[in-house]
Automatic annotation (TrEMBL):
GO terms for molecular function: nucleic acid binding. It holds the Pfam family Mu-transpos_C_2. It comes from Haliscomenobacter hydrossis (strain ATCC 27775 / DSM 1100 / LMG 10767 / O). Belongs to the transposase IS21/IS408/IS1162 family. NCBIfam families: transpos_IS21. This is Integrase catalytic region. GO terms for biological process: DNA integration.
Length: 483
């Protein structure tokens, strides 16, 4: 006989949602004792538990066999009705099933307001046959609205981030709205770093939820009771849908799963709410969900690449340019199959149309260093006129006519002359070249050098001294010549 304080402690811990196993470990008592305290005892010491129906007494062996095969109560009820023609209710069958179970751990249900939360998870269904005698691994994505228990189920072949997000999109559209919170297990596709209090949400998943106006609430590690609704949904799929399949055919799996969802899963009386999920969703939760966005979230595949010394990143055997100042940096690449978006620390630095060839350079002129950028004839003509004068512009037009394949290099050369010589000197050299019909950059350069070493001609006139003239010389000079 245990003291009253033990009874009180057990009741308190049960009220907080702890399982019998955890309470037994903390208090050092057997789980059966906790079970007796949980259900209470009358004055005679008899446990108040589940009563078995006399009508099902003859079928208890068969029911136990089905339980050992992990069949759900609903599937057992369906088999009793169809195979044995039994006329009884699901509640009667369920009471018998619960009485046959040796141990049944319980948790305090987490109540949620309509539209507040959905729980999501993956569950492994096993191998399915595919055409060509091959077999494929199948997982089921489960999303359950916590208030109405309306469920969405989708069969997938992987648990990637892209698949995870795509299933969310389908689930929200199936629910005709978006819950405020999404409670998920610490899946790699949703949670990058599990943490007890502040898990790091996967970047792409966080972006997706922000687009739909929802938030993520990862479950704490090793606390399955925090997502009991979706875990029950996964078990329900395995024990009802999966065990009810006649054959595991991959080609018809999606159709069979959707039919089962619409005709069985969402139209049954839920064991906890005692209501039909579809009806509860239609009456209460549908209107409480947030609106769907005007456009679907566009998924981008994310990778990281280091910028080569040529100012490009390599993606799918092609080269895509980024600003030349980012050489050597590691950038993040986003692609949706049509475009390639490149960002640095969250800021977009380049956007390209994907090239389906191999070994191609996709280069934007603005990404190159200024001296390597390609410009039009009008661009160079305007710059030469602004920095040197109209003579340089006219000389460029003459060069372009005589040298149509190399005029850009000569235009850049003329601009470089302004770094070595004053603009007036280059302008004078261009004028002399035009006067002589010369269209060579080297000639203009040589003229500039010649002008540099030629002293300027003075245009200032100095009047002769008073008394000086053409014949005004000292006469004594002539005497010296005669001598």
């Amino acid at each position: 006989m245990y003291r009253m304080d033990v009874h009180t402690t057990v009741k308190t811990l049960l009220g907080r949602g702890l399982s019998r196993r955890k309470i037994a470990e903390q208090l050092g008592i057997h789980r059966k004792v906790i079970k007796r305290i949980e259900f209470g005892s009358d004055s005679s010491g008899l446990i108040k538990g589940y009563t078995r129906s006399k009508q099902l007494k003859a079928y208890e062996g068969q029911i136990q066999t089905w339980l050992d095969q992990d069949l759900t109560g609903e599937l057992i009820y369906q088999k009793l009705v169809k195979e044995h023609g039994l006329q009884t209710s699901y509640s009667t069958v369920n009471r018998t099933i619960r009485s046959l179970k040796a141990d049944h751990e319980s948790f305090v249900p987490m109540q949620c307001l309509a539209g507040e939360e959905a729980q999501v998870d993956f569950g492994y269904l096993g191998l399915f046959d595919r055409e060509g005698a091959s077999r494929v691994k199948i997982w089921v994505f489960c999303a359950v609205l916590s208030h109405s228990r309306l469920g969405y189920f989708e069969a997938v072949t992987d648990q990637s981030v892209e698949t995870f997000i795509r299933c969310h999109i389908h689930a929200f559209e199936f629910f005709c709205g978006v819950p405020r919170l999404v409670r998920l297990d610490n899946l790699k596709s949703g949670v990058t770093t599990p943490d007890f209090y502040e898990p790091l949400i996967q970047e792409q998943y966080a972006s997706f939820l922000a687009h739909y106006g929802a938030g993520a609430v990862p479950c704490r590690v090793r606390t399955p009771e925090h997502k009991g609704k979706v875990e029950s949904g996964v078990k329900y799929v395995k024990k009802n849908f999966l065990l009810g399949l006649d054959q595991r055919n991959f080609s018809s799996l999606s159709t069979d799963l959707r039919t089962w969802t619409d005709t069985v899963a969402n139209r049954r009386v839920h064991g906890t709410t005692k209501r039909v999920p579809l009806q509860m969703w239609q009456q209460v939760e549908k209107s409480a969900l947030g609106p769907l966005p005007a456009q679907r979230y566009e998924f981008y595949h994310v990778e990281e690449r280091k910028v080569t010394r040529f100012g490009h990143v390599i993606f799918r055997n092609n080269y895509y340019s980024v600003p030349y100042t980012l050489v050597g940096q590691t950038l993040r690449l986003f692609t949706n199959g049509t475009f390639l978006r490149i960002s640095e620390q969250g800021q977009e630095v380049a956007l390209h149309l994907l090239n389906n060839d191999k070994g191609q350079y996709v280069t934007q002129n603005g990404h190159l260093a200024p001296h390597k950028q390609q410009h039009t004839l009008e661009y160079y003509a305007q710059r030469l006129e602004q920095e040197i004068g109209t003579e340089a512009r006219d000389l460029l037009l003459l060069i372009q006519q005589n040298h149509p394949s190399h005029w850009k290099d000569k235009a850049r050369g003329l601009l470089q002359l302004c770094r070595r010589h004053p603009p007036q000197r280059v302008q004078e050299a261009c004028r002399k070249a035009l006067d002589n019909g010369i269209s060579s950059y080297r000639s203009v350069r040589d003229i500039c050098l010649a002008l540099e070493h030629t002293p300027p001609i003075s245009t200032h006139f100095e009047a002769p001294a008073p008394g000086a003239g053409g014949m005004a010389h000292e006469l004594s000079l002539y005497d010296q010549l005669v001598r």
